[in-house]
Design brief:
Keywords: GTP-binding, Hydrolase, Nucleotide-binding. This is dynamin GTPase. The longest helix is centred in the first third of the chain and has 56 residues. This protein has a domain of about 80 residues. The radius of gyration is 64 Å and the shape is elongated. The chain is mainly alpha-helical. Helix 1 packs antiparallel against helix 2.
Length: about 260
């Protein structure tokens, strides 16, 4: 029996060969013939399984060690670079920059606050105090506010009469209501409500009684001199004539 093995890399080939050797599968010897000469060559891997296992163990240990070294290097190199940069910058500041600043001029003027920054700081302080005062006022208002029930609905009966007479003003809630204005003849408008009783001690005028059927209609008031037109005559309804009599139906038929 024969097995053919193909892999992409040489490391995979070696790994598979070592696995086959541990399982007891050995590569067969190949014989090359070139230019009429025969020569035998052994396989690329050793025939000793113990040696193959030791080689694989060493290779795995070396791979693990190299992975650890690579990870440690990636972790330490950026830290080392930053350490060197910071140390060099600190040495430059302490050795050269500080002496140059001391020799350049007045140190108090160098640490003085600029007018723009001072104005900005004052503006921020004013805003802070204004917000604090606004919060205090809002808290006082919310603590001192007392809720009251909703007032009853407003009676708007006077709106109907106000539409008929635009000159009327709405009645005041506290004072007595004034009577509606009279016309020139002393008669109220037909669609207006009767005036309320006066607030004085005089009795209210009596309501005129309705005239009987024998009397004629009342005279219209407001005529100059107290004279009125004669009452109109009531037309009499004519008596209807009796309906005509139906003619008798002639009797026809057989007698029993």
């Amino acid at each position: 029996k024969q097995l053919e093995l193909s892999c992409e890399t040489q490391d995979e080939v070696d790994s598979w060969k070592a696995s086959f050797l541990r399982a007891g599968v050995y590569p067969e010897k190949t014989t090359d013939t070139a230019n009429g000469e025969e020569g035998g060559s052994e396989g690329t891997s050793s025939m000793d399984p113990m040696l193959e296992r030791q080689v694989e163990t060493i290779r795995n240990l070396v791979d693990s060690y190299m992975k650890i070294v690579t990870k440690t290097t990636r972790d330490l190199v950026p830290k080392t670079i930053m350490f060197l940069i910071i140390n060099n910058a600190k040495d430059f500041i302490n050795g050269e920059l500080l002496a140059h600043l001391y020799a350049s001029g007045d140190q108090s003027s160098m640490m003085e606050e600029s007018p723009e920054e001072a104005l900005k700081r004052e503006e921020m302080l004013r805003m802070y105090h204004a917000c604090k005062e606004a919060l205090r006022i809002i808290g006082d208002v919310s603590m001192a506010t007392v809720s009251t029930p909703v007032p009853p609905p407003v009676k708007n009966d006077w709106l109907a009469s106000g539409l008929d007479n635009p000159r009327l003003s709405p009645p005041s809630p506290g004072g007595p209501r004034r009577g509606m204005p009279m016309t020139m003849g002393g008669q109220m408008g037909g669609s207006r409500a009767p005036p309320p009783p006066p607030a004085t001690g005089r009795p209210a005028p009596a309501i005129p009684s309705r005239p009987g059927p024998a009397q004629g209609p009342p005279m219209p008031p407001g005529r100059p001199g107290g004279q009125g037109l004669p009452p109109p005559l009531i037309p009499s309804r004519p008596v209807p004539n009796p309906p005509p009599k139906l003619p008798d139906r002639p009797f026809s038929g057989r007698q029993f």
